[in-house]
Design a protein that fits this description.
Largest sheet: 3 strands, mixed
CATH class of the largest domain: Mainly Alpha
Family: Belongs to the peptidase M48 family.
Order of helices and strands: HHHEEEHHHHHHHHHHHHHHHHHHH
Distance between the termini: 19 Å
Keywords: Hydrolase, Metal-binding, Metalloprotease, Protease, Zinc
Protein name: Putative Zn-dependent protease
GO molecular function: metal ion binding; metalloendopeptidase activity
Helix content: 55-70%
Structural class: mainly alpha
Strand content: under 5%
Number of domains: 2
Cofactor: Zn(2+)
Shape: globular
CATH superfamily of the largest domain: Tetratricopeptide repeat domain
Number of helices: 22
Length: 440
């Protein structure tokens, strides 16, 4: 890749620096990494688990990044890991290892990839009441992973196409929605596992067995499901992504309660371990009000109620000024309002708090392009590549930055590379048009 030092000559005649409107359109490109197919020569593993590990390795890091990365709380991380380790001993597949991450996302979400990568949003954890409910949530995701398969959204033949579908869909959306996951349904992407009601019910039965065998009350699962049903009635917008992998919640409450009574009645009197829960989540509990404000703000952003959303985000930041997730949401809200300088300041603050999260690099790059600062955009994109390599969106944005920096030939290379991923969507249209403009 070219270095920024070699990309600082003036822009050639005909290569246009981007207007704010252009760059806002560019923000609609995918925030994901494409799947890479193994070559026949290098494909030595043919088992279902080898395939599952490939899916996890390619999709899970991208989805974790979209969910704003891991909550940096060592006490919480160790506590959740201890519960996962207890449930791990009940997993029937010896080649399946549970790896649970608590993520900064504010909506209520839990998902599992087929090799055991599990994501739980902090919004979800804050909806729980005790350790038995957290164990039930992890057991349910472990049961999904144990099934060893993951359905993709309608229209996607394989995981690679799901990534391309995400790219095209994002490039048709408004400027701020793809990075935020606000395309009409909070947090939804084509990278998330999708399950049928029958698959979910099968996982329910297995989760009840795991809970009982691990020493938890099996009744924690129907209690958890009922709590989520009640919360969804109050705030359905927070559950759009969760519903993809957990359909038919209402009917599952009754069925899991019946099985818990019939087959696991002896587990009913076991402790729910609320004191351990409060101790392990003490840092998270301190952010309850902050997460609530962020949830309100994100739903307001869905309605494009920017001033109200910003007010709620600022209220959240007043409580914890260095919260990476809220800093990012505030930057995205400010960007949508056209306050690009303020947005860049919040991105810089987010990167200072957590320099290892790639989403901030990409938002920083797009904001830099919007303010005609392609050299800084280049540096941000290089940082993104170091953290999360292979993203076609970064290939495209590097082309935009190089064109603005006067490197027409290198820009054309990047545009052509992006068109190798997809020829659909606004980003592809932009790349094609500028290849013609550059005479390439």
């Amino acid at each position: 890749m070219p270095s920024p030092e070699n990309a600082l000559s003036p822009s050639p005649r005909g290569a246009t620096l981007l207007s704010r409107r252009n760059v806002l359109a560019l923000l609609s490109i995918p925030w994901v990494t494409p799947l890479r197919h193994a070559s026949a020569a290098g494909a030595t593993e043919t088992s279902d688990m080898a395939t599952a590990r490939l899916v996890d390795a390619q999709l899970a890091p991208q989805q974790f990044a979209l969910d704003l990365g891991r909550v940096p709380d060592a006490t919480l991380t160790d506590y959740v890991a201890s519960i996962a380790a207890t449930l791990q001993r009940q997993v029937a597949r010896t080649d399946l290892t549970l790896a649970v991450r608590v993520l900064r996302a504010h909506h209520l979400q839990a998902y599992a990839y087929p090799a055991g990568s599990i994501g739980l949003s902090r919004g979800m954890l804050l909806a729980l009441q005790d350790e038995s409910e957290l164990a039930a949530l992890i057991a349910l995701q472990a049961a999904h992973a144990e099934q060893g398969r993951m359905s993709l959204p309608a229209g996607a033949r394989d995981a690679r196409q799901a990534v391309v579908t995400q790219a095209v869909a994002a490039s048709q959306a408004s400027a701020w929605s793809p990075p935020l996951g606000l395309d009409g349904r909070l947090g939804t992407t084509t990278l998330l596992p999708v399950r049928s009601a029958d698959e979910a019910r099968a996982s329910d039965q297995r989760a009840l067995q795991m809970l009982d065998a691990a020493g938890y009350p099996a009744h924690a699962l129907p209690t958890l499901l009922q709590r989520l049903v009640d919360l969804r009635r109050q705030q359905p917008g927070l559950f759009a992504a969760f519903d993809l992998g957990e359909p038919a919640l209402d009917s599952r409450v009754a069925s899991t309660r019946q099985v818990a009574e019939q087959r696991h009645a002896m587990s009913r009197g076991r402790p729910v371990r609320r004191e351990r829960w409060l101790g392990g989540t003490v840092g998270l509990q301190a952010s309850l009000s902050l997460v609530s404000d962020a949830q309100t703000a994100e739903q307001a952003m869905l309605r494009q109620e920017w001033p109200f959303a910003l007010e709620r985000l600022q209220t959240a930041l007043a409580q914890q000024p260095r919260d990476h997730g809220v800093l990012m949401r505030t930057a995205q809200c400010l960007q949508a309002m056209g306050r690009l300088r303020d947005a860049r300041g919040h991105v810089a603050a987010a990167r200072e708090v957590d320099p290892d999260e790639p989403l901030a690099c990409k938002l920083g790059a797009t904001l830099a392009l919007a303010q005609r600062d392609p050299a800084h955009a280049w540096l941000e994109l290089e940082a993104h590549d170091r953290l999360l390599p292979g993203d076609p969106a970064v290939v495209f944005l590097k082309g935009v930055a190089l064109e603005a920096l006067g490197q027409a030939a290198k820009a054309a290379e990047h545009y052509r590379a992006y068109l190798g991923y997809t020829t659909q969507g606004q980003a592809a249209q932009y790349a094609s048009a500028h290849l013609r403009l550059l005479g390439r």
